[in-house]
Protein 1
Amino acid sequence: MSRVHDNGYPWDTIFHTRFNNIVQNSLPWFLLQWMTEQKMNQWFNHENYGLMPRNRSLMKEPVFNDDLPSRILCGAVTVKPLVKEFTENSAIFEDGTVEENVDVVIFATGYSIVFPFLEESVIKVEDNRVPLYKHVFPPHLEKPTMAVIGLIQPLGPIMPTSELQARWATRVFKGLSVLPPESTMVADTVRRNEKRIKWFGTSRSQSIQTDFIEYLDELAIGSGVKPDLFLLLLKDPKLALTVFFGPCSPFQFRLVGPGKWAGARNAILTQTERIIKPTKTRIVNKGSNHLLISLLKILAVLALFVAIYLSLSQH
């Protein structure tokens, strides 16, 4: 995928919205998979470039590289199947082709999760994953005095994820938030792992993979900082709509609760303008159809809500 998404905005500011998250979770798996492939193939047909994953039924963490397609098109990069074997100075691939006089081989094998400084009674690694409650707390400790921050691979940026993990952990350490019984925490780790396998498979590289917005909200609930969209809609409709349809940025978790920031509202309402501002080194007049396009988008959203409501009412 390209980092540059719809209307030139960074991909995550368009993809990671609460509205998109609800739509994705409401769609049947096969339809979600088809829509994802269609969107990714708008830039270039991955099958034509040999970049279609083998197991297309699983979610994959996308590779963001704006140069790769053009390098393949120009012949600077050649996509090959898996390596069958190596000789002294060549590589033999599964399709029988051979690359002679190989200078360097780089094994992009990922990482092995280990904690050599801790006993297994504290943290035990199983299948390259650690069964932590909400990816943070070892569930069997007598007291919650240790948290693991950042041992996670979300389908989104790691910084806001780790920040919310840390905010929750410090409140637990201080006794302001209480963890559930051990049995509940263990059951949660089992359920979470089953969901991960269903979505991402059993590959070692996906061992700590998780979704993004849903996980952020889980952490935010633990810290008491998750915004109440319904209440927000009644008090501040403009802000509520921006929170729902706009990028799910860390500012959303500074609106209420511990760590509340007075500037969060303004930061949310102006974030899209500030994101694109560095590119506006030459100011141009907006096209005449700009207002029409915005109106069509609003009508499309309203039509979607009506369709969902009618579908639910029939059931």
Protein 2
Amino acid sequence: MENTSTFTTFIFEGYFVMDQQKPLYFTVFLLLYVAIVLLNSLLIAVIYSERTLHNPMYILVCHLSVNGIYGSSGLIPHLLFNLATQFHKISLANCLIQIFCLHTFNIIEVTILAVMGYDRYIAICHPLHYHSLMSHRKLQILVIFMWIYPLITFLLYESLTIRLTFCSPVITKTHCMNFELIKLSCTDITVHSVIGLVLTMTVFTFPQMLLILFSYAQILRVCLYSSKECKTKAVQTCTPHLLAVLNYLIGVFFEVIQSRISTPGQPYDLWYKWSGDKDLSSQVVLS
């Protein structure tokens, strides 16, 4: 008989290294969250009230703003709570909810950017057929797809994480991420990691990035044989979208790199001291 501890509550390691700067971080993240909610809400209100903006591009921008509020609300309020208190723990259920919100936010973001790229491709390369190819009904279908596709596909993948058991309570970051959680699993995660990589390449982001690349390759091809005025108009039309794509890719790149780098943790007993109790685990007996 062998005793093994499985954990259903986790400690965030990241908060202990910023103990003296918590008031500063709290103020910064509070102002950031207020700004994100207010500015995105204002943008949504302007697009909704101004009928001249009721076209596919601005409607997609509106959904980008909604997703921004959704993603920030899945992360920042929990950060603020942890920065304002000494309670740096989270239950497994809440951790899985946060993982779902943050990862679906990222997938929805890149999916919206892909649809926006397709919209720009139709507007520049097929201007005479734009209203038929991006009709109101087709836009509705794309909008439903942008939200339902990421929510369902990631939920299916997260079901693999839900079935895991965890042998360590220490998450090295300030919030829950799927890869950070599965690293704490009691079992080998090789298959889980391979499935995650395959899904990322074939479902979560790679098809969307291919659509963006295809759209801009076609736009570039058309611009090469167009007048200087058309080239200038195309650049003005596509620059905001390209900046949004670049901003997304830089953020994803650094997050992926950081999640793969192991950071040295403090001794295990110290985490129990900080957590205030040692009842984080439930004992199970494995034969």
Protein 3
Amino acid sequence: MWSNFFLQQEEDGRGGMGALGGAGSKSGRTGKRARPPRMSDSQEGKIKLVFFLVLIGVTLTVLGMGTEFWVELSQPKHFRNNHTCEMAHYGLWKSCVRTLWVSDIDPERESCGPAELPGESNCTYFKFYTSGENAVIFKKTTQKSLHIAGAMLALLSLFMMVMGSVCITMSISKSVPFFLKPATICFVFSGILVLLSIIVFHQSVLALLASDHSIPLHHELSWSVACVGSSGAILIFGGLIFLLLSLPYNPLEKCFRQQSSSDA
């Protein structure tokens, strides 16, 4: 009797283990993760094209940040009553004071400049990044808090550009559109930060001009600001295009198909 009981228990145990194994294998088969959607060749080509456009914006940002032609401050060309006049130009990191010949300046121009004319130049780096000292340009004192804030915004925008470029590189290498949305956030945010840095920098220039009125100065934003402003617009536009390309229902694809069908 006992031998029959133990044999029955063994058979029941084997049957239970088999049932558990079958259930586990079924759950394993049904629990497999679905593969992420892959990009088509046409979508990948569009992403590479937009990424090339964004890289142009990144290049313009680096060019503008590294040059000292954000603003030009010009004295009246006859202020010193001699054959020379002085002007200054500066950016985020460095300022230059130039002495130009009045004879080289356009007769219709009232102020000294532009900075591209030949003349003597004396350039110095701003010390408020190291020792905290304000710079003095034509008896006018810079507002280091505004200037540093503009520089930090520009540097933060550059960091966001790098992060967005990493996301696009991973999206292209893995051939998945998942990283397009993080790249959109990075590039749009970097473009906004670039434009904000221009606004803050302009406020620092106005604060500089208001610090002293003994020397009349004419100021104008120069080509470095044009580079940075253009890059901000390009980055925002490129980020929005990445957002459209990341959508499951791509409006751009529909536009391209309608255009091709109309041409045919």
